[in-house]
Amino acid sequence: MCGCKRRYAMTCPPQLEPANFKPQKVLILTKLSRYEFEKRRHPELTERQLEKCLRMRGSDYNILLYHHYIHKGVENTVNSVFTAAGIETRVVYRFDYSDPNIEWADAIVTTGGDGTYLLAASRILDRNKPLIGFNSDPTRSKGQLCLPQKYSVDVKEAVEKLLKGKFRWTFRSRIRVTLIGENIFKPPVELHDQQLRYHEYRYLDLEPQLHTLQKDISPCSGIGVARRVLPVLALNEVFIGECVSARVSYMELGFDDVKGIKQKCSGFIASTGTGSTSWTYNINKLTEQNMEEILTIVKEETGFKIQDTDQYFVSKITEKFNQMLITDPEVSKMVYTIRDQLVSSPMRSECVKPRGFAKTISVKSRCFDASLVIDGGLSFTFNDGTRALLEIHDEDALRTVTLLGDSTEVSFKH
User: Fold this and answer.
1) Strand blocks (E) in 33-191
2) Which pLDDT does position 143 carry in this prediction?
3) Torsion sign (Cα): 202, 206, 208, 211
4) Rounded to 5 degrees, what are φ and ψ at 357?
5) Contact 246/409 with Cβ under 8 angstroms?
6) Looking at the DSSP assignment, which residues form a beta bridge with residue 175?
7) Closest by Cα among 179, 173, 146 to 233
8) Which helix (H) or strand (E) holds 387?
9) Bridge-partner residues for 199, per DSSP?
10) Burial level of 202, CB count in 10 A (0-12/13-18/19+)?
11) pLDDT digit string, tens, across residues 123-164
12) 402 has a pLDDT exceeding 80
C-alpha cells in the first residue's frame, strides 16, 4: 500500500447504514467556467479586448458571460444555504483542491457538472467522507452524477433533506490502479487544464503521494521492480491506449484467473457500474439503424415475420439492448471493453470476448507512446513493459447520496 490514506469503517453493511448527515465543515469544489478559463488564459487582455478575441474565434462573449453568471448564482446559493445551516464552508477551484483541504472537510460538495464531480471523487480516499453534487447549469449539462436538476433551483430543499436524513447512502464502486515497472513516477498530465499556459495549473497537486515507492521483487531475477498504487481512484473508467488514436494499441490482458491474452485494438476501457452509463455505454450501444439492419437480416435468414421496418418496434428492441449495458453502480465488478478488437492471441483457440466482467484486470503495455487515463482527466505514461493492475475493493467505494422520492428503480443486468 502506498503512503496515501485509505480510511474506512464497516460497522454494518452499506445498505443498512443509517442516513445521518451532520457535517460541521463542507468543502465546495466549484468548476472553472469558460469565461473564467478565458480570463486566466489571457490575463493581459482588457474586457473589451477579450470580447473581441473571443468573437474572432467564433465564440459568443455574451453567452459565455450569461452562463458564467448562472453557474456563479448556484455556487453562491449552495454556499449561503450551508452557511445558514450553521456549517462552515470553503469554496475552492480545482487548482486548490488539495489533500489538506479535503482532510479539513467532513463532506465534499461540488457545483458544476459531471467533470467537476469526477475530479472531486478521484481524490477522496476516505470511505466515510460523502460527496454531493449540484448541477450549476442544467441548461448546458445533464449532470447525471449530480442531484436531480430541480435542486439546482431549490438548493435549500436538498440541504434540508440531507440534514433531516431523508436520503439513502449509495456506495459507488471505484477502480484502484497499481502501476508496476519503470517511469511510473512521471508527473501525470491533467487533461482538462493542459491548454492553460501556466505550469502551476498543468499538474494536480499530488504530493507527497507522487513519490511514494514500493518494491516488488521478481522471483526470477531478484531485481527490484518499482510498484506504485496511484493516489487517485476511478469512478467512471480507466482507459489504456496509444496517445495517437490512429495508431494500433498492443497489450497483454488478464481477467481474474485468465492471463496472457495478447490483443491489438484501438484501446482498452475498464469501467465501473457508474461508468457503464458513460463512455462505455456509448462505445457499445446499438443505434436504431444498426438494429433495423440486424432485424432485416434475421427476417431474411429465418423467414420469421419480424417487424423490421416498424419504427416503434425497432426503437423498443434497441432500447432494451442498450439498457442491458448499464450495471449497478454498487456492484464490485468492472465492465471491460476491448475497443475495435483486431486480433486475439494465436496461442488460444478461443477469441476473448470484446466485452465482459471482471473483478481484477491486469494489463501489460506493448505500446509505443501510450497513456493510462483516469476518468478522462488524469493521464499517466504507460509504455512498453509497464504493467497495470486494476482492482475493485469495497473500502474504495465512494459514499454518495440518493434523496428520497427522487430515485428511479432500475433493473440491472450482470
Assistant:
1) 88-92, 107-112, 131-135, 167-172, 175-180, 189-190
2) 83
3) negative
4) -120, 150
5) no
6) 234, 392
7) 173
8) strand 387-392
9) none
10) middle
11) 999 999 999 999 999 988 888 899 999 999 999 999 999 999
12) yes
Q: Are strands 334-338 and 268-271 parallel, antiparallel or unpaired?
A: antiparallel
Q: Is the peptide bond before 18 cis (omega within 30 degrees of 0)?
A: no
Give the whole-angstrom CA distance, residue 231 versus residue 73: 33
What lies within 8 Å, CB to CB, of 57 at 6+ separation is none
Can you give the C-alpha Rg of the chain in angstroms?
23
Prediction pTM value: 0.84
Give the burial string for 365-377 (b: 16+ CB within 10 Å, else e): bbbeebbbbbbbb
Grid cell listed for 412: 440491472
CB atoms within 10 A of CB 176: 19
Q: Which pLDDT score, from 0 to 100, does residue 215 have?
A: 45
pLDDT tens digit sequence for 212-248: 444 444 444 445 678 999 999 999 999 999 999 889 9
The count of other CB atoms within 10 Å of the CB of residue 223 is 9
Indicate the pairing of strand 167-172 with strand 131-135.
unpaired
Residue 237: all three cell numbers together: 473508467
- What is the DSSP secondary-structure string of 166-190? -EEEEEE--EEEEEESSSTTSPPEE
pLDDT reported for residue 405: 81
Per the structure block, which three cell numbers stand in for 156?
435549500
**DSSP 3-state helix, strand, coil percentages of the chain (rounded to 5)?**
30, 25, 45
User: What pLDDT score was predicted for residue 188?
Assistant: 85
